[in-house]
Amino acid sequence: MPIVTIQLTREGSSPGADLVTAEEKARLIKGVSELLRDALGKPTKASFVVIDEVPLGLGAACRSSSIVRNDAQPADRPAWPSPARG
């Protein structure tokens, strides 16, 4: 049984969203299962996909994930606001 782990930051796919929706997770699971079927011949029902939502604050190159993410935004697209900390 293939096991695939996907790590995502706890923010949605649109500005202001604070989590990945159930529908987005379902699309990821379906897509990964189909990829394993097409690439490796694994039955989709045998695939196990783990979606791990990681809190913001992790970083790269000594910078927080929110700074790295905002720096990667195209100039004509406004940066996403950082989610409220609680």
Describe this structure in words.
The chain is α+β, with helices and mostly antiparallel strands and 86 residues long. The protein has a single domain (3-71), classed as Macrophage Migration Inhibitory Factor (2-Layer Sandwich), CATH 3.30.429. Helices cover 30% and strands 21% of the residues. The protein contains two helices and four strands, in the order E-H-E-E-E-H. The protein has helices at 22-40, 65-71, and strands spanning 3-9, 48-54, 59-60, 63-64. The protein is elongated, with a radius of gyration of 16 Å. It starts with a strand and ends in a 15-residue tail after the last helix. The mean pLDDT is 78.
User: How is the CATH topology named?
Assistant: Macrophage Migration Inhibitory Factor
The DSSP helix count reads: 2
- Element-level helix/strand string: EHEEEH
Distance between the termini: 39 Å
Mean pLDDT, all residues: 78
> Overall 3D geometry?
elongated
Count of DSSP strands: 4
> Residue ranges: pLDDT <50 for 5 or more in a row?
none
Gyration radius (Cα, Å) is 16 Å
Superfamily (CATH H level) name: Macrophage Migration Inhibitory Factor
Strand percentage lies at 15-25%
Structural class: alpha+beta
Largest sheet: 2 strands, parallel
Quick one: CATH class?
Answer: Alpha Beta
Strand order of the largest sheet: 1-2
Helix content: 25-40%
**Shape-level CATH architecture:** 2-Layer Sandwich
